[in-house]
Amino acid sequence: MSVSSEDQFKNIVSHCKEYGFIYPSSEIYDGLSAAYDYGPYGVELKNNIKNYWWQAMVRMHDNIVGIDAAIFMHPKTWKASGHVDAFNDPLIDNKDSKKRYRADVMIEEFVEKIEAKISKEVDKAAKRFGETFDEAMYRQTNPRVVEYQTQIDSINQRLATCMTNGDMDGLTTLIEELEIADPVSGSRNWTEVRQFNLMFSTQLGNIAGEEGKLYLRPETAQGIFVNFLNVQKTARQKVPFGIAQIGKAFRNEIVARQFIFRMREFEQMEMQFFVRPGTEMEFYNYWKEERMKWHLALGTPAEKLKFKDHDNLAHYANAAVDIQFDFPFGFRELEGIHSRTDFDLKSHQELSGRKLQYFDPELNENYIPYVVETSIGCDRMFLAMMSHALVEETVPDAEGQDSTRTVLKLPAALAPIKCAILPLVKNKEELTDKATAVLHRLKAHFPCQYDEKDAIGRRYRRQDAIGTPYCVTVDFQTLEDDTVTLRDRDTLEQQRLHIDEILPIVKERTDMAGLFG
Ligand code: ATP
User: Fold this and answer.
1) Rounded distance between C-alpha atoms, residue 495 and residue 487, angstroms
2) What is the C-alpha to C-alpha distance for residues 436 and 421, in angstroms, rounded to an integer?
3) pLDDT of 193-232, one tens digit each?
4) CA angle in degrees (0–180, nearest 5) for 393-399-400
5) Alpha carbons 485 and 283: distance in angstroms, whole number
6) For the segment 326-349, what is each residue's pLDDT rounded down to a tens digit?
7) Superfamily the domain 42-71+216-387 falls into
8) Cβ of 246 less than 6 Å from ligand 1
9) b vs e for 466-475, b when ≥16 Cβ sit within 10 Å of the residue's Cβ?
10) Is it true that domain 395-516 has CATH number 3.40.50.800?
């Protein structure tokens, strides 16, 4: 992370706390590592993100329906899904610092350092050659860059092979050969790499021993698979159709960090799309594009998002791609789109002994559908929105303290509060009564906030900091002609409007329907 992105990340974390978006969990006990609580504005923003996803899936597609399955599932579910045997991360301990790491992540970070060296060389050369600089040619011909790139390719290749084959000894050897040191202590005194299962387990009250062992679901997808036939029949759906779900998932991550990017308890928004075998690539491509459109409709710049194909496919997938977002710590996975074949339904059919087949009336035959899934972390989406939206900017024509402002440029449809109602001064009853009357007119239609404390400029700044797109100010002229000012968060323009115009204007400009084109 460069210094400025490190600062930006720190700003996001402290802004989230200071303005009631996210607090460390159980803070009065010094917090619990990697667990966070969403505050009053955080919960509104998170609900809006979920709502945007839900509407895009369930409301905008006739052939997608939703469910809300239990977090606890029959333990055989996780045997069938492969999670009991294969939901592992490679764990390594440093014997001196006693710190734990994910071996694959350590190797990836090592590769990132070499990539940073390449970028440095490229930047230097770009400055030296100026306008005539041909970056692609330089990357192909500069001996130092070529050497770095060869090293990267070879490490990535070995990492992918080890991960695909579950070769823990191979990872140990790679870490030793690359002489990777513990970032905390600098020590290279490592244990062997071993597999670590990421599922949290718990025990049923009424059954002792292994029989009563339950898992907290590590993904919401399995609740969809086991309900496939229930939903298909009761919602009278025909293949191709989808089932959407939003809910908590739990993973005992070896290293949970980077704020809400990687937590042990988080929320997923997943959709499994059931298709005729052989048509899965068509739908895989459709959902890839559809999901990218969903992100772009929020106004996120295209260069902040990119597709990244998986180097090594999970045991169930025949194609997989991530949508990565440019977080302050670099491009990382925000969402996954996976073609999961018939792996899950077939395994559940085998282990449960129940037929999970679909009768296709057009083909006049039974088959187990193939599945294309889209899976996005709600918390990661929250962090992506925050990283993109939080900006410090200079205010034109302002002086001194007022010349800069911190503003959260969230898409209006996702903003926690849509409209703030502000009487110009607080000790004039006619003004505060009028402003309260405006609040009562608006608040049933969208989330509003009434604020009369402090000078008007400070109140505007407070609303900017929580991302409120519109502020209505009630002043002395309002008492004469029922007009108010409507201030736009982004342009800072103030428009004089009749009170009756506020509701339709703010409603239209903050309505989620606007995101669907
Ligand atoms: P990663 O490689 O970052 O661990 P993953 O590939 O294991 O992620 P998936 O199993 O594809 O993730 O889960 C789907 C989505 O759930 C991810 O794209 C991410 O947004 C979210 N997610 C996964 N693990 C976590 C976590 N520990 N904390 C927050 N969100 C998570």
Assistant:
1) 7
2) 8
3) 999 999 999 998 877 777 788 999 999 999 999 999 999 9
4) 90
5) 49
6) 999 999 999 999 999 999 999 999
7) Bira Bifunctional Protein; Domain 2 (3.30.930.10)
8) no
9) bbbbbbbbbb
10) yes
Q: For 423-472, what is each residue's pLDDT tens digit?
A: 999 889 999 999 999 999 999 999 999 999 999 999 999 999 999 999 99
Q: Which distant-in-sequence residues (6+ apart) come within 8 Å of 458 by Cβ? A: none
CA 336 / ligand 1 centre spacing (Å)? 8
Q: Is 69 in the pocket of ligand 1 (CB under 6 A)?
A: no
Residue bearing the CA closest to ligand 1, atom 2: 333
Give the span between the Cα atoms of 115 and 280, in whole angstroms.
35
The pTM assigned to this predicted structure is 0.90
CATH, domain range 88-197: 3.30.40.230
Q: Give the Å distances, CA to CA, from 298 to 388, 400, 512, 514.
A: 11, 33, 10, 10
Over range 268-282, report the average pLDDT.
97
Cβ-in-10-Å burial (0-12, 13-18, 19+) of 200 comes to middle
Strand, coil or helix: what is 334? strand
Give dist(CA 16, CA 137) in Å, integer: 44
Instruction: Output the CA 117–ligand 1 centroid distance in Å.
Output: 28
Domain ranges of the chain: 42-71+216-387, 88-197, 395-516
- 247 alpha carbon to ligand 1 midpoint, in Å? 13
399's CB contacts (< 8 A; 6+ apart) are none
pLDDT at 221: 97
158 lines ligand 1 (CB under 6 A): no
